[in-house]
Design goal:
This protein is α/β, with parallel strands linked by helices. It is built from ten helices and 15 strands. It has two domains: 163 residues, Medium-chain alcohol dehydrogenases, catalytic domain (Quinone Oxidoreductase, Chain A, domain 1); 147 residues, NAD(P)-binding Rossmann-like Domain (Rossmann fold, 3-Layer(aba) Sandwich), CATH 3.40.50.720.
Length: 338
């Protein structure tokens, strides 16, 4: 019988790391020892704060997260580890393989090989743990369809916003502008390739954005997680522009001003979420193909400076407190199991 440390959310702002007994792998399972897992500063913090909608499953596309939301709850979806044991019917080539799993934070866990993604050679654990957020960024860019010479705006430079900006920087855009409150993230944004990164609380913001984007952004991504930011995104998007809505607000409400220029602007507001592929891609694309693209992008993006903090699993409470109370100090926080 193996013993595993697992993280559980008990109620808003309360969590525990508890030791559990774990059986040996069944015939079609493998045992994975975790190396690192990433804390999602968006969706996962909704769970931490109790801002998660309680009338839906936590994530129906991921077996470990498919149950109805209620405390106590295991949550998390970005884990890298090594296969320690295999069941009788599992190919022994899985032994010792580094793998990625959409799994809650846990030091040892059981999974079927079909639920694991082998980590490509040449990528570190710290790069591999960014796979879900990179896949999300790929999904946003696919839904946005940036064109040569376009003026693009990204609102929010958390980890997903930064990865999205890094992908957009590879396109021949006229300009790429990003917005974020925190200097740490604005500096990181320019490192990944943004031409300008501005403070949305700057009193002169409207004038600066108008000077750069002229008649407004052709394409805007709202990735801040703040309901107030959607108004900002709409304000700076030009006539017939596209706004890709990637934020998930949970139970937070957005009070939009749709009585001004929006009414005549023909702006298209598009919901984008990584669990599915847009129907227009379904004939040629699969989740596996999108994962392959995300792995390729991780090999090109300089991700080292995006991981700002690393906590042992037993100090997980400190990690969540940091993200919740001092977001200006952190970009990506990870938990370590060694």
């Amino acid at each position: 019988m193996n013993r595993s440390l697992s993280l559980r959310f008990l109620s808003p702002y309360r969590l525990e790391v508890k030791e559990e007994k774990l059986p040996a792998p069944e015939t079609g399972e493998v045992l994975v020892r975790a190396s690192v897992s990433a804390i999602s500063p968006g969706t996962e913090m909704l769970v931490y704060r109790g801002e998660f909608p309680q009338d839906i499953s936590t994530d129906s596309s991921i077996p470990e997260l498919a149950s109805q939301f209620s405390y106590p709850l295991k949550y998390g979806y970005s884990m890298v580890g090594v296969v320690l044991e295999v069941g009788k019917s599992v190919d022994r080539s899985w032994l010792g393989r580094r793998v990625f799993a959409f799994h809650p934070h846990q030091s040892l866990f059981l999974a079927r090989p079909s639920e694991l993604i082998p980590v490509p050679e040449g990528l570190s654990d710290e790069q591999a743990v960014l796979l879900p957020n990179t896949e999300t960024a790929v999904n946003f860019v696919m839904d946005g369809k940036p064109l040569i010479g376009e003026r693009v705006l990204v609102v929010g430079q958390g980890i997903v916003g930064l990865l999205t900006a890094a992908l957009l920087a590879r396109f021949p855009l006229e300009c790429l502008v990003t917005l974020d409150r925190f200097p740490l993230r604005r500096n990181a944004s320019q490192q990944v390739g943004a031409h300008y990164c501005l403070d949305p609380q700057d009193e002169g913001l409207t004038g600066k954005v108008s000077e750069i984007l002229l008649a407004g952004a052709d394409l805007t991504f709202e990735l801040s997680g703040s309901p107030h930011a959607l108004d900002l995104a709409l304000r700076f998007t030009g006539f017939e522009g596209r706004v890709i809505m990637g934020s998930w607000y949970g139970i937070k409400r957005s009070n939009l001003d749709l009585g001004g220029r929006f009414h005549r602007s023909r702006i298209r507001l598009v919901s984008s979420q990584v669990s599915t592929l847009a129907s227009e891609f379904s004939g040629r694309w699969t989740k596996e193909r999108r994962f392959d693209v995300a792995w390729q992008m991780l090999a090109f993006i300089q991700t080292k400076h995006l991981i700002t903090h690393r906590f042992p699993i037993l100090e997980a409470e400190k990690a969540y407190t940091l993200i919740d109370q001092h977001p200006e100090q952190a970009i990506q926080v990870i938990l370590a199991y060694a």
